[in-house]
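Take a specimen:
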Amino acid sequence: MKEMILSNGVKIPCFGYGTFRLSDEESCVKGIRDAVETGYRLIDTASFYKNEEIVGRGIRKCGLPREELFITTKVWASERGYKPTLESFETSMKKLGLEYLDLFLIHWPTSEARFPDWEELNRGSWQALTELYKQGRVRSIGVSNFLEHHLKALMETEIRPMVNQLEIHPGYPQLEIMDYCQKNGIVVEAWSPLGRQRVAEEELLVSLAEKYGRTVSQICLRWCVQHGTIPIPKTSRRERMEENLNVFDFEITDEDMAAIDAMPECGWSGEHPDTVPF
């Protein structure tokens, strides 16, 4: 598995396995085992997914030593602020059954539209992550779904975010925030890198898949990789895991990358960090 290096020198796999909606033990444990056997080393979960306990069991049963895996979880929006974030971390660690975490993220920013003290709440959560990082309980810290105005206050703190996990895929590239993060040393992870069904049916992507002798999913994932992001697709099917990971032996031309960048909006989840109802 290829790796990237975070701003603090920690190595992170450049491809991840997402566990969202893997809620029953059999499929989750098997999914993690299949992913590890296929070559994945980054396992991504969150308290919101309600599966940290079974993800933890999958990690213990996957056949690899803990230090060979890169485990991520996230604090949910209902646990905003300094103390709730620390409490959420302890709960997640107990459920996962881990002694340390490789990456801990704030799942969603607090927005001005819903909270008058939104910046203070974000700073409080970030203070908690910073303390956990300094204590060595977390190897790296970051955020998810933060746009530039959400990041501003955190960029002025002692320790800046090392990762920002964003919804990124053809039809919803978020090029502006991607560029901002990369210029400021923040590694970008791409959640939902395949988008929704509309993306798979997009004429441009279908034609490019034929041109490169690949699937539409592989074109989407390769596009993410060439933009310097870490895609985190999710699937319970081993053959799809193998297909998704098989994107490092071809390259999309600059012209075709630009065409994908310019696609009309499609496949977006509809979740914007300033308007989500939480």
